[in-house]
Specification:
About 55% of the residues lie in helices and about 15% in strands. The longest helix has about 60 residues. α2 runs antiparallel to α3, α7 runs parallel beside α10 and α13 runs antiparallel to α14. It is rod-shaped and about 215 Å long. The protein is an alpha/beta fold and about 900 residues long. The strands form 4 sheets. An 8-stranded mixed β-barrel has the order 14-15-17-18-19-20-21-22, surrounded by 5 helices. A 6-stranded antiparallel sheet has the order 3-2-1-6-5-4, sandwiched between helices. Strands 8-9-7-12-13 form a 5-stranded mixed sheet, with helices on both faces.
Amino acid sequence: MSFGPALSRSGIHTDSISAHDLIAREETIFQRELLNRATQVRFRLVVLELAVGIVDFAFNVLPGPWQFLVVDSVLLLLVNELVRSWNRRGATNERHLLGMQVLDAIMFGLIIASFGHEGHLVIPFLVLTVAGYAMGHPRAARRQLVLSCLLYPIAHLMGERMFSPSFSVVHILLETFLMGAISWLAMQTPIRYVFRVRRARRALAALAEGDWSVRLPTRALDDVGFLGVSFNVTAEQLGAAVRALEDEVEERARAEESMRVARHEATQMAERMSAVAQAAAGVLATDSARALRDVLRRACADVLHLQRFAIILVDRRAGTIRVLGDSNGDDVSRPLPTRGALRRVIDERQSCISDEPFDGADGGAPTAPGTMMRTPIIVGNDVVGVLAVSGADAYGTADVAVFEALAALAATALRNILLVEELRSSREALSHQAHHDGLTGLANRRRFRARVSQSLEREGTQRVALLALDLDGFKEVNDTLGHAAGDRVLQTVSDRLLNATRGSDLVARLGGDEFAVLLEHVPDDAQAVVVADRILRSVSQPITIGDRLVGIGTSIGIAFGHTEARTDEAGALANPQERHRDLVDVLLHEADVALYRAKTAGKSCWVIFESSMHEEERSRRQLEGELREAVASGELQLLFQPICDIERGALRGVEATARWDHPRRGTVAPAVWQPLAEESGLVVDIGEWLLERACTAVAQWPNVAGDRVGEERPISLTLKVSIRQLQSAVFATTVQRILATSGLPASSLLLEVTEEALTRASAAARDQMQRLHNMGIRFIVDDFGMGASSLGYLQGLAVDMLKIDRSFVQGVARGGSQTALARTILALGRALNLATIAEGVDTEAQRVALQSLGCELGQGTFYSRPVSEEAIVRMLEGERVGTA
């Protein structure tokens, strides 16, 4: 240990140094003082020893070798004075003390050796020296004890050998042991006392440093022990008082800090809320989610520590989120996350500050954790979006409050935006619905007419083509497979039309199975024909409906128009504002006329409109109108054509027909007006009129009433019915009502249906036939052998008779293929247990040939042309035909 420079008492300022530093300095002062006292004592001893040596050297008082101690004493005196000089200058250290101890040990050793066998008398001095060192320097005491125990036996042994011829080594070692033991015991109490005092000094130093937990041992019942008791009580009371004072000071400091923070936060909150209020107008004025994003990003940058910003739109129904970017192409759409902070915000509907990075779910590259703040945008009861920000600093309560205020503004703005977008979508949907077909998505009639009008109003000379389409066989598909299958067919045809036409062409569904195509920039007829051919090939491909293949076709009428003003044959209106509208009507009408010509030409083909078709169309429409008037005014007449037994010529029944005697045209052939009636739907009214008149007339005939008894067979009434009548939901009810009103038995009524109609009969028509058949009404297949290529339609149908077409009957007398076909039909009838009737029997040869083939009944000019009711009555009375 270094003693360091000396400190004067006037130079110590205890207020400016710590207690531990003060104790260390006191240790230095004490050690220097100890060394100073040791040099003073040694000075006196050395002087005394030097005086004794000088006296003995001068007068030879003692016999011993004391004279030799003069040199040692002089050396010790010089060393002692040198150490004293160093100590006064503060240049001494512990090595000097060790050197002096070594010199002391040597000096005592010389004294012991000088005394010879009386050297043990020096032991008390050694013990006192060791004990003296123990009072101030325990380590020096231990060193002194070790040096004394080492030098004593050596010095004593040397003295015994020089001055006593006889000596005992054991005696010397025993003296050394006793000297060491006594010295050790003598220094323990001072050392213990020194250690206790030093512990007390360190405890005081710790107490001065503020360590109130320090305590002193109190086991010894002496002054130092009682001092420890007092110290402990004082330390405990001081510690409690200081802790209470510290708690009060800390509480006051916390209160002051809280007030300062509160004032700071209140000021910041006021500033931020002011900024939020300023941003409110801009937020509420936004008209789109992207504009709202830009306004909110600027607002957040003004009131928050912001590095990144994102607004995420949430669609819980679709299970997706969309992070808005600078443009539609920058938007990021992803599935709704199943976990994480974003999911917690959506589910818990509360703001969240997490250590998750600003990841891809929120947009942007990942950032450092602990910087993310998210808050939900709630509209009504739904979370429609999430605001997310990322900053370098941590977000506090004030930041969350401001962010939630912005989210509330965003919710109001987003609700308005969603409402506007919903209204806009509804308006667009209504607009789309108003201009497009709901089933196929094609343009409807309204949009098609507008587009045609726009094409015709363009400046310059431009040729356009309009294609009117009508599906062939669609009605049969709709009737047999149902409306769902019909809708599927319409959708498939729509897709095929879009693929078959050019990209710039407009395809429209005008209604039902009617379509139209507008071709613009058509330089010649060839381009329109190419498109028409592609449409025919595409539509004619089979369509799969469930497990069935359906085949349909289409007929196409083509009309051409020009953008320059023109006058059609019918004459356009003089008003310029109406001219283009008339041109559209004219063009549509021309395409319809061409379509009708394609239908009558055999279907599944295209026809280009020609000007000559106008007159034909006008004549047809005029004849249709006159037919309606004839039905309403009762111009139609009821006629009956006899049906006779081929073998005997007896009258077996009549077929009721209608004749139209036009006031100007004369008698109009059925082949002329019946297709018009079928097309226009008048056939239903004409059929009901014919059925009611015929049933009423036949029921009054005496043969049917049973006035005469002769033949077993009654007179039957046969009427032709169209597929339109069978598909009417009230047809069976109407027939039942007429039979009940007229009194005609149901077994006397035969309804005649063409083979072609039966093959196209829907499920509803078949049900009607079955209901009528269950009532006793019989059915005849008309024109048998002319329509279907398969006889499978006969299975399950309520059919009772087959009528051989007149084309087979006309050649039956000549033999050949017609005869073979007639024979086949008759054989088929017998195999199916069906009666047969031959129509068109005009000659005796035909009758004879049919009789030979086994045909039962026949009708034709050979027997009679259609005649009036009175003629049939006269025929019945003349032939006296019996009734069953």
